[in-house]
Amino acid sequence: xxxxxxxxxxxxxxxxxxxxxxxGWDLYAHLPSNTTMEIKPHETVxxxxxxxxxxxxxxxxxxxxxxxxxxxxxxxxANKLGIVDEDYRGEIIVALHNHSNETRYVENEDRIAxxxxxxxxxxxxxxxxxLEQTNRGDGxxxxxxx
Length: 146
Fold this sequence. Notes:
Layout (H helix, E strand, L loop, with lengths): L3 E4 L17 E4 L7 E4 L4 E5 L2 E4 L4 E6 L2 H7 L1 E3 L4 E3 L8 E6 L5 E4 L3 E9 L27
Antiparallel strand pairs: 1-5, 2-11, 3-10, 4-9, 6-8, 6-11, 7-9
């Protein structure tokens, strides 16, 4: 299976994989005029990637943290898991949050997140008066003994 990707700028970098079996495609920062983006402690900034995608039917693009960037620098997507809907054709933009207490910097062409293409099941919502019963019922947080 393949997915179409479009460079929105001549110097944008097409997503790459770290290995043949990697689940995610690394997304690269595309900053104007090779500038550096400063991210202050606990601040969120939007960083463009310079690319757009056309995803297969019944899939979405999950924008996830890169483990090294998150654990070593405290930089990860602000919404924890960004969603690129299959019908979105605009630039992939990463809302990168600095969870650390130090100012961090992102350079043009830095790998800032990863795109994982995930299938989903399209469903319709059916309004009902009652739901089927389960052993758990409506027990919420911590109700399963964990």
